[in-house]
């Protein structure tokens, strides 16, 4: 009997200790959960504030921009220029440093025809892997080449492969550049044929006011598709303009999709200039 009483007393004392320790244990668990949660929240917040290039432009005007990346070959450049001249359309050519060096007369012809001259880097590298100094070197080398050839100070930059990060966009800003992507990809580089290019652009789900359309001056079927793309866009009511005439150069914000939006009165301006 005495042994039983002793056991019951021990159990009661043990339960008391458990109840006394329970709040402290719960508090410790709460702290352990809260700290990682705060860290995750901070990371999410920073991620949401990442730098974005301009993919498209919010505008009430029914206009779009055609752009051509020039990194390899010039066999079709004059044909493209002739088609553009025929329809009195001006576009943007993004050129690499190597292309500028190899085809200086084409660079001059593009400028003389009234098209935008854009920067596509010196060596067509994945520039998100470069540091700030390397990014700026990749930008300023073609910039200086074009300046020497044409007197033009370029201000539009398209990252090779569409590859970018915060460092690249900030480096471009320091060099006086707006970083430009696209929201309509013609996929002309896949060489599926002219019909495919025309259909891809004119029926693209993203095609709307302020769209930026990606094409390539060296793709196999681009020259065969270009006239139909121009006519098709015009038949849909679009005016085709160079990117310099589409984007806002100040007082704008960029939303999470990369759409450039003019700042409203009292709204914070997130533009670099």
Description:
This protein has 273 residues and is of the alpha/beta class. It has helices at 2-48, 77-86, 97-102, 104-112, 132-150, 166-174, 194-202, 222-235, 243-246, and strands spanning 56-57, 63-70, 92-95, 116-119, 156-157, 178-179, 184-185, 212-216, 239-241, 252-254, 259-262. The strands form three sheets. Strands 2, 3, 4, 7, 8 and 9 form a six-stranded parallel sheet that branches. A three-stranded mixed sheet has the order 1-11-10, with no helix packed on it. A hairpin with a 4-residue loop joins strand 10 (252-254) and strand 11 (259-262). Helix 2 (77-86) packs parallel to helix 8 (222-235) and helix 5 crosses helix 6. The radius of gyration is 29 Å and the shape is globular.
Largest beta-sheet details: 6 strands, parallel
**Helical content band:** 40-55%
Structural class category: alpha/beta
- The number of helices is 9
Number of strands: 11
Distance between the termini: 89 Å
Strand content: 5-15%
The average pLDDT is 86
Query: Low-confidence parts lasting 5 or more residues at pLDDT below 50?
Result: 18-48
Order of helices and strands: HEEHEHHEHEHEEHEHEHEE
Q: Label the overall shape.
A: globular
Rg, alpha carbons: 29 Å
Keywords:
273 residues, alpha/beta, six-stranded parallel β-sheet, 9 helices, 14% strand, globular
SSE diagram, text form:
Blueprint: H1 2-48, E1 56-57, E2 63-70, H2 77-86, E3 92-95, H3 97-102, H4 104-112, E4 116-119, H5 132-150, E5 156-157, H6 166-174, E6 178-179, E7 184-185, H7 194-202, E8 212-216, H8 222-235, E9 239-241, H9 243-246, E10 252-254, E11 259-262
Parallel strand pairs: 1-11, 2-3, 2-8, 2-9, 3-4, 5-6, 7-8
Antiparallel strand pairs: 10-11
Helix pairs in contact: 2-8, 5-6, 7-8
């Amino acid at each position: 009997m005495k042994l039983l009483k002793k056991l019951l007393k021990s159990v009661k004392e043990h339960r008391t200790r458990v109840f006394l320790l329970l709040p402290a244990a719960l508090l410790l668990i709460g702290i352990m959960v809260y700290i990682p949660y705060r860290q995750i929240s901070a990371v999410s917040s920073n991620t949401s504030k990442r730098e974005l290039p301009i993919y498209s432009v919010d505008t009430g005007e029914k206009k779009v921009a055609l752009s051509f990346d020039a990194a390899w070959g010039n066999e079709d450049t004059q044909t493209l220029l002739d088609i553009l001249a025929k329809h009195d359309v001006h576009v943007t050519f993004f050129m690499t440093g190597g292309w500028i060096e190899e085809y200086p007369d084409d660079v001059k012809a593009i400028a003389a025809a009234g098209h935008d001259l854009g920067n596509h880097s010196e060596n067509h590298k994945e520039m998100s892997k470069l540091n700030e100094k390397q990014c700026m070197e990749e930008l300023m080398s073609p910039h200086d080449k074009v300046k020497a050839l044409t007197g033009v100070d370029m201000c539009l930059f398209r990252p090779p492969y569409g590859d970018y990060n915060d460092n690249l966009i900030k480096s471009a800003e320091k060099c006086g550049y707006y970083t430009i992507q696209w929201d309509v990809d013609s996929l002309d580089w896949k060489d599926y044929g002219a019909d495919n290019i025309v259909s891809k652009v004119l029926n693209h789900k993203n095609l709307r006011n302020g769209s930026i359309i990606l094409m390539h001056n060296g793709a196999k079927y681009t020259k065969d598709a270009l006239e139909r793309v121009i006519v098709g866009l015009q038949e849909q009511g679009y005016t085709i303009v160079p990117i310099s005439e589409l984007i806002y150069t100040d007082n704008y914000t960029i939303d999470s999709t990369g759409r450039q939006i003019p700042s409203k009165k009292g709204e914070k301006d997130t533009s670099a200039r």
